[in-house]
What we know:
By secondary structure, this protein is an all-alpha fold. It has helices at residues 2-8, 12-21, 30-45, 52-61, 71-77, 88-104, 109-120, 131-145, 149-155, 160-174, 178-199. The protein is globular and about 55 Å long. The site of fe (ii) ion (FE2) has 4 residues, from loops.
Amino acid sequence: xxxxxxxxxxxxxxxxxxxxxxxxxxxxxxxxxxxxxxxxxxxxxxxxxxxxxxxxxxxxxxxxxxxxxxxxxxxxxxxxxxxxxxxxxxxxxxxxxxxxxxxxxxxxxxxxxxxxxxxxxxxxxxxxxxxxxxxxxxxxxxxxxxxxxxxxxxxxxxxxxxxxxxxxxxxxxxxxxxxxxxxxxxxxxxxxxxxxxxxxxxxxxx
Length: 206
Ligand SMILES: [Fe+2]
């Protein structure tokens, strides 16, 4: 547990929640996704007056419900322009599992309610409830531009450049906070550099 704390910057309680969530994060790229989403959330928390004690548990737990959704629905729901309602099932399951985990660590009841409300609509609800919610929604999306990008190029029937272009086109529609838009644009630039590396005949194969 110590190593995780150092790597992700989580406090003791947050690390414990992450440990309990891990068994439910072994589908898709969800463990890396949750970690990366937490990293973005910490950056946004440094810029806004929001509640870390709500944002970070919501971020860790928001996708645990994918562990209970069929592979077929998961695949359909994961496409960039997928019907939002396809994601509804994992939200409902994430709330159930999330509640159990938060109870197990004895989390503050008032915060649990807000955390679960955020998880409940993190994909299907278009409007946001609070700055806490906006940070969760934006951080969730940011991972697609960052650590989960190469995973999705393997999962989706798209070339890296096509996925980068699609994601770039979603920036204004998806993100709520201006800093999130900037971070997304910076990540797209990075991914394009990585693509160039791959096509550079003089580069050393990784
Ligand atoms: Fe997510």
